[in-house]
Amino acid sequence: MTVLIGKDLTFEDVVAVATGGAEVAIAPDVADRMEPARRIVAEVVAAKRTVYGISTGIGDLANVRIDPAEAERLQRDIVRSHATAVGPRLPTNVVRAMMLLRARTFAFGISGIRFEILERLVNMLNAGVHPVVPSQGSLGASGDLAPLAHLALPLMGEGEVEIDGRVTDGASGLRSKGLHPFALTHKEGLSLVNGTEAMLALGILSVVGAERLARAADVTSAMTVEACLGTDRAFDPGLIALRKHPGAVSVAANLRALLSGSAIVSSHRHSEHLVQDAYSLRCIPQVHGAYRDGLAYVRSMLEAELGSAIDNPSVMVDTHEVLSGGNFHGEALGLALDHLGLCLTGFATIAERRVARLVDPDLNNGLPAFLTEDPGRRSGFMITQYTAASLVSENRSLCWPASSDSIPSSAGQEDHVSMGMTSARKAASILANGEHVIAIEGLAAAQGLDLREPLEPAAGTGAGRSFIRTLSPRLDDDRPLSGDIEALSAAIASGDLLATVESEMGSLR
């Protein structure tokens, strides 16, 4: 697969480059598209006009005039001075997405930089030269300044890069791939650091992961419904259609498909054992569905950003102007990514309640305590619920909305910021925690289904149990379950669990 810079990008394109290592190519017309804006920047410099970031300082120093002889040095120093990010490195897939997304903005032809800068980003991507980008330090306006500065340093032969898992200095990394450093010229340093690509990259990858988790949660929750002798009557299509929420309709359809033909469900369909199930079982469509509708909103915001050119100032070729504005501000993304964190927290919260029911003999309709046939001498799944509860509590602390905060910077010039990168980082952490909680539910539900033998689960839920058994044997004697949880969590994140289930019963919504 080749992803083309200069054409509309999709989430799938970003994932293919970030995670799948897809090659990136540049559309034939991009160089010509970028040239008019570059010419306007050259005219501004030749005429000694006062334009932000080209012939002036930046931020609160915008009123400081820069001598044309110092203008090129200014661009180098902008990148150097902005490279103040700290903390753990962003994962390589996030850095690759950032590089792709910054190249995408340059291809719009509104930045006024040389085509060679875009070309170098693409060459580095294809050669596997990945800048080392610390994850903390962005205010989300003017975009992701600090992370993007670290992304830009290696273009000048500075900073650090990672190649095949090994970190080296930027100059050596470029040389090892036959590339040379660039001396930045007018506006190029400012354009390299002015954008929302860090929060957008992390956000896109997290939304794709969240959509996988949402469908995996439908699988594990259906397994829990069976194991707890729940009913499928609450998922009746006519009943669900009384409310006009698309997420609930999709989830209910998934549950019906997953439970179709279940001997376990059929065994008690007309019994009087319960008038109705607990909310964590009965209300799965309404709860999972609400979070799915939230994910749809988040995706729509990030798709809008994916189709946008993010820079400041922007070169307006039609009117021959260079205009400063606020297109770098990350509020739309920060707000959406905070909502993503809230939705992901919800998936984990209700899953933990289902795990608690599975292990409680007073709530699970006849399964042994803690899903072990020798409770007391064995603890079974007792402590997995502790782990799920711990992760849910952590997620609740993480889903406080960072976008509701703002700390003025640059001597009050930048007096309202989005904190959108913080929202993105938190959402990614919540996603990872949620994958572990859904994995715990899957392991516990598979054990519950085993304990219902000789009754057999439905084809869909049975496929889920069978896949889980390839990673985690039935728990007879107590053993450490940490590795089992990690293995299933990875399979949820990769989509392997979902792919196996869908190969048995068809695609889930």
Question: Would you kindly provide a written description of the structure presented here, covering whatever features stand out?
Answer:
It contains 20 helices and 9 strands. The mean pLDDT is 94. Helix content is 55%, strand content 6%. The protein has 2 domains: 2-195, Orthogonal Bundle (Fumarase C, Chain B, domain 1), CATH 1.10.275; 202-404 and 418-504, Fumarase/aspartase (Central domain) (Fumarase C, Chain A, domain 2), CATH 1.20.200.10. By secondary structure, the protein is mainly α. Strand 1, helix 1 (11-18) and strand 2 form a beta-alpha-beta unit. The chain has a 3-stranded antiparallel β-sheet. Helix 9 packs across helix 11 and helix 9 packs across helix 18 (459-471). It is elongated. The chain has helices at 11-18, 30-46, 71-82, 92-107, 115-127, 145-152, 170-176, 188-193, 197-227, 237-240, 246-259, 263-267, 279-282, 284-306, 331-359, 382-398, 420-450, 459-471, 482-494, 496-505; strands at residues 2-5, 23-26, 86-89, 130-131, 134-136, 160-163, 166-169, 314-316, 321-323.
Break the fold down into its secondary structure elements and pairings.
Blueprint: E1 2-5, H1 11-18, E2 23-26, H2 30-46, H3 71-82, E3 86-89, H4 92-107, H5 115-127, E4 130-131, E5 134-136, H6 145-152, E6 160-163, E7 166-169, H7 170-176, H8 188-193, H9 197-227, H10 237-240, H11 246-259, H12 263-267, H13 279-282, H14 284-306, E8 314-316, E9 321-323, H15 331-359, H16 382-398, H17 420-450, H18 459-471, H19 482-494, H20 496-505
Parallel strand pairs: 1-2
Antiparallel strand pairs: 3-5, 4-6, 6-7, 8-9
Helix pairs in contact: 1-4, 3-6, 4-5, 4-9, 9-11, 9-14, 9-15, 9-17, 9-18, 11-14, 14-15, 15-16, 15-17, 16-17, 17-18, 17-19, 18-20
